[in-house]
Amino acid sequence: MRGFTHTRWLTGAAAVVLMATGCGGGASGAADGGMLTSSWGDPQNPLEPANTNEVQGGKVLDMVFRGLKRYDPRTGEAQNMLARSIDTTDSRHYTVRLRDGWTFSNGEKVTARSFTDAWNYGASLRNKQKNAYFFGYIEGYDQVHPEMGGQHADTLSGLKVVDDHTFTVTLNQKFSGFPDTLGYAAFAPLPRAFFTDHAGWLKTPVGNGPYAIESYTKGSQMTLRKWNGYPGGDKALNDGVILKVYTDSNTAYTDLMAGNLDLADDIPAAQLKNVRTDLGDRYINTPAGIIQTLAFPYYDQRWNRPGMEKVRTGLSMAINRDQITKTIFQRTRTPATDWTSPVLGADGGFKAGLCGRACTYDPAAAKRLVRQGGGIPGGSLRLTYNADTGSHRDWIDAVCNSINHALGDDNACVGNPVGTFADFRNQMAQHKMSGPFRAGWQMDYPLIQNFLQPLYFTGASSNDGQWTNSEFDELVDRANAETDPAKSVATFQQAEEVVRDNMAAIPLWYQNGNAGYSQRLTGVALNPFSVPVYNEIKVS
Amino acid sequence: MGRYVVRRLLQMVPVFVGATLLIFLMVNVMGDPIAGLCGERQCDAATAAQLRSEFGLDQPLWQQYATYMGNVFTGDFGTAFNGQPVTELMAAAFPVTVRLTIVAILFELVVGISLGVLTGLSRGRPVDTGVLLLTLVVISVPTFVTGLVLQLLLGVEWGWIKPSVSPQAPFDELIVPGLVLASVSLAYVTRLTRTSIAENRRSDYVRTAVAKGLPRRRVVVRHLLRTSLIPVVTFIGTDIGALMGGAIVTERIFNIHGVGFQLYQGILRQNTQTVVGFVTVLVLVFLVANLLVDLLYAVLDPRIRYA
């Protein structure tokens, strides 16, 4: 790299003189032949399946890996991929049988061990994997990943390899939805090279998906080529994808307009007004499994006393969701009427209107309820959010305006920006929130369980407000133990009604995935995780 | 002269230690960086503790700083949160920003000084007034406006350049970003040179040079410009550091993956190692640039002598 740059400087110095006239070379095509270029963000963590918890790294894992299950890009339904069958009789003991003929792109066979080794690695405390808790349902997790002190075991006792193509999983509790969680990237299989040459593997990760990584310049660019030996049914319809890191989605959009980029999957808020005229039907705006809510600090007694549910419901009714999603978000958000997401579908547990009147704008009722509940603690609401990313400031201000307007008090609500996301998370973890705070939730897998349990169950991983309700907890446990999927979903919805009656968190809106693409592409779509379905894109 | 250099080098040590300590404290005041690593959820306590000990965040601050400085002297700048050594990030980012800075400085030197000499010699004429007005406009318009407008016009509307710079960032792609980065300083350089030239034009040594019958060109370049450049050189010298550290806006607009990008990412992710590492190098750049400026004085103006 260094030697290379020195020679570049010399030639470059000559170029400065030559180019002083101001011609910077024409804007040539974005990529060669059947390759396409796509916008990307710098992944926050090393690219390991069990260590990647944000969309940008997940995007790559989705191209490079295939797991036991895969979520249908359109319906979100979990379908068998590498799994021939996942059987259980009691929702606790599962037998997984693998399909034959699958290999990693380096030729190594995908066996039962590829999975169990990967899961053991992911769960082990020693490896500091940020998604380790996904293995928390498997028996023996508390041994390899104890909450305190060192680990007592190297492997999960609930995982047993039977033969090359069979392994069994024992859970520490009944969880009928377990097989449907297995499409999540953390459960991907890993080749031997991952364990034997870890540093080398991280430089160019090797997986078993439709694409293989050709080169990876961290922080700048990744080139993925179609893997011709891919045995799955969802082969890539293009020759490859070049992911280019953009620091600012505005630049990506400008590049798309200039023909310098084929696909931008994050349309900046400032461009939403023009995007339809700029791109016409090459603009996609489809629902994703993301919901924005306002959570409350239940560790603060002022927010937790009896009667406060009236204040919370009143605040919910004071927010004009329809107007905010229209004016601020240009309809890239949909007013929420429950606590899940439309991508689940009615069968999966989405129930439009479950929130009922509590999510309908009604200033008069809002004012009345807040008064009945004893008013806003401290007289004024401080909505805390991180101001570094997204356009949180815009909508927080709009929500506050709406509340102030409805309550007829200009000082009822103010935004309380926090500089960085890390600091925001910090204050949350230290229970320093003095009032409601922004809480976004992007689903890990399309299950109603994933929208309720991590957020509202007592002591759950993302229950940042520390809400606790025994009736809710009981219903969730029952729903998880239920073997009939329809009954399980119905029980989860009952639990959701408990959330509603207490207004544990105010649902704001469902977020859509946004993308725009160049004329060279056809067949572009976003999956329910708002990630482009790369393998289905055709390049002309 | 030699003693002067040694004294200056020694003075750098406390400045260097103080500056890095300040940055270290500032980044640490922002709180626990591990909190932001697990996305929209809390890291589980055990994993967070492991990560904290990996990055040495579980030790008292003074010890963290001592360890850090100790490592820096052996060339180890620590590891960023994505598992990359900070030195690797530097090796990727600094060449890009240095190139960008070179382009910007060249603009300042060539365009800024030429315009300054031109206007300084023709004070009150239309050329002078025109350039003055132009520089006023450039100074008053924020960089991101200039940058976005140029990007839109040259990149999208006319298609002369690519709106974003490729990862390799060769010199030819950096001309427009360099101009944008230089724009405000360029205007200052023009005005500084102009004032300085206009002042010195009436000084005794210039009159003497003219009276001796030296050609006008020689008077301007050898006598007038040389002394007039002292304030300009001071300005450009400090500007080198400012350009490298302050390129965040320009680098963001044109998607240049340089120092500004790394610093921005580091601050967003509260990555102490990245931020302190990059700032440390920037502090060194500042110090060295300042030293060079002071040494240049003697070269430019023989009347200035150091003990």
From TrEMBL, chain A:
Example GO BP: peptide transport
Please list the residue ranges annotated as the Solute-binding protein family domain.
Answer: 79-462
The protein's matches in InterPro entries, at most eight in alphabetical order, are given as: Peptide/Ni-bd, SBP_5, SBP_5_dom
Would you name any one GO CC term?
ATP-binding cassette (ABC) transporter complex
From which residue to which does the signal peptide run? 1-30
Please give one Gene Ontology molecular function term for this protein: peptide transmembrane transporter activity
Alphabetically sorted, this entry's keywords are: Signal
Q: Which PANTHER family match?
A: ABC TRANSPORTER SUBSTRATE-BINDING PROTEIN, PERIPLASMIC BINDING COMPONENT OF ABC TRANSPORTER
From the Swiss-Prot or TrEMBL record, give the protein name. Answer: ABC transporter substrate-binding protein
* Source species: Streptomyces seoulensis
TrEMBL record, chain B:
Q: Entry's Gene3D superfamilies?
A: MetI-like
Gene Ontology BP annotations: transmembrane transport
TM ranges are: 12-31, 96-118, 130-154, 174-193, 224-249, 275-300
Keywords from UniProt, A to Z, are:
Cell membrane, Membrane, Transmembrane, Transmembrane helix, Transport
Q: GO CC terms on record? A: plasma membrane
Q: Which PROSITE patterns match?
A: ABC_TM1
Q: What is the lineage of its organism?
A: Bacteria, Bacillati, Actinomycetota, Actinomycetes, Kitasatosporales
Q: What is this protein called?
A: ABC transporter permease
Q: Does the keyword Membrane apply?
A: yes
